[in-house]
């Protein structure tokens, strides 16, 4: 019994992991296509400094060179950008690069001999309603007369803020991932409850799924198109083995002489049961889809780690007695 349950869980986790990898690959492709990383980097800089200053920072050579082909969109920090323009933006800016670029904007000095006194004079001269004045005066007070320490303060200030921006980005990407997962689950009719039932009741199927699902689990070195193509191939293999994935007719309606409507052929209803049982069956299908979509939230790494730990338990067996 233990072996049966463990093998069922292994097969199910492999499918969770494979689907999560594909969802991650497609999500990453989508975020690159719409330029989401560059958009959030720019949004983070604009929320840290004002619009004109953000544009000046983006136009600094140290930042501009990291843009696509080294060319930034015009007025990047001050205007809404389209998809093509967002894809030209840098996707990453280190704290050190930000601090140096910000100093160059704050007190332009070709010779590179900017002093704390020059920065303090500049900041003190701003109006009191300038949102940057208070945090910069605080950093200047901590730095004393050490421009290196002030630059380090700028780096930490930027890094702390970008940690929050990363949280914004991840929440946005999670919604994209859930949308992709929903499409994948519906497209391939991947039902966690139906898969679990089949794995648990069919020993030959369990062994086949563990072998074949592993072939589609790792898409880290493939682009989205190749990964999806490989996944379709593997789905056809496991479907041929009897795993209920895809939109073919269920076994009860597969016979030539079977009389089933469209809902019964897809497993949404049972030709031998009444309406009440059909409703329960349909709700189970919805629950199975929802579980598959939810399984992509932790990410592929979570499921691979779970499989690794489960594999270790299977290989080591119970701890021997000390007596």
Question: How would you explain this protein's 3D organization?
Answer:
The protein has 323 residues and is mainly alpha-helical. The chain contains 15 helices and no strands. The chain has helices at 2-34, 36-48, 51-59, 61-64, 83-86, 95-106, 116-124, 133-143, 147-188, 192-201, 203-215, 224-240, 262-265, 275-295, 300-316. Residues 317-323 have low confidence and may be disordered.
Task: Compile the SSE list and pairings.
Layout: H1 2-34, H2 36-48, H3 51-59, H4 61-64, H5 83-86, H6 95-106, H7 116-124, H8 133-143, H9 147-188, H10 192-201, H11 203-215, H12 224-240, H13 262-265, H14 275-295, H15 300-316
Helix pairs in contact: 1-9, 1-10, 1-11, 1-12, 1-15, 2-3, 2-9, 3-6, 6-9, 7-8, 8-9, 9-14, 10-11, 11-12
Number of domains: 2
Shape: elongated
Order of helices and strands: HHHHHHHHHHHHHHH
Q: Which percent band covers the strand fraction?
A: under 5%
Spatial separation of the terminal alpha carbons:
27 Å
Q: Helicity level, as a percent range?
A: 55-70%
Give me the Rg, rounded.
28 Å
Number of strands: 0
Computed structural class: mainly alpha
Would you tell me the overall average pLDDT? 79
**Main sheet, how many strands, which sense, barrel?**
none
């Amino acid at each position: 019994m233990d072996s049966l349950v463990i093998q069922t869980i292994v097969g199910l986790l492999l499918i969770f992991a494979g689907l999560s990898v594909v969802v991650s690959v497609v999500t990453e492709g989508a975020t690159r296509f719409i330029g989401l990383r560059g958009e959030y980097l720019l949004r983070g800089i604009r929320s840290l400094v004002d619009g004109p200053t953000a544009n000046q920072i983006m136009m600094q050579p140290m930042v501009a060179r990291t843009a696509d082909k080294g060319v930034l969109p015009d007025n990047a920090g001050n205007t809404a950008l389209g998809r093509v323009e967002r894809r030209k933006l840098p996707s990453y800016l280190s704290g050190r690069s930000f601090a140096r670029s910000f100093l160059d904007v704050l007190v332009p000095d070709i010779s590179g001999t900017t002093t704390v006194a020059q920065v303090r004079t500049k900041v003190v001269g701003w109006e009191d309603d300038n949102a940057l004045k208070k945090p910069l005066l605080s950093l200047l007070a901590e730095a004393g007369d050490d421009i290196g320490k002030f630059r380090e303060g700028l780096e930490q200030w930027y890094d702390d803020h970008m940690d929050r921006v990363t949280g914004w980005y991840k929440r946005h990407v999670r919604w994209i991932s859930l949308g992709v997962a929903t499409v994948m689950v519906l497209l391939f009719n991947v039902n966690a409850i139906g898969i679990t039932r089949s794995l648990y009741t069919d020993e030959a199927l369990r062994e086949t799924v563990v072998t074949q699902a592993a072939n589609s689990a790792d898409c880290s070195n493939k682009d989205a198109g190749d990964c999806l193509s490989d996944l379709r191939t593997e789905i056809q293999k496991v479907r041929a083995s009897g795993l209920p994935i895809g939109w073919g007719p269920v076994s009860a309606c597969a016979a030539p002489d079977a009389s089933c409507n469209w809902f019964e052929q897809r497993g949404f209803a049972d030709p031998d049961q009444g309406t009440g049982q059909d409703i329960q069956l349909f709700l189970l299908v919805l629950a199975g889809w929802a579980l598959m979509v939810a399984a992509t939230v932790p990410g592929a790494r979570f499921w691979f780690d779970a499989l690794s730990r489960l594999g270790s338990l299977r290989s080591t067996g119970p701890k021997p007695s000390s007596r």
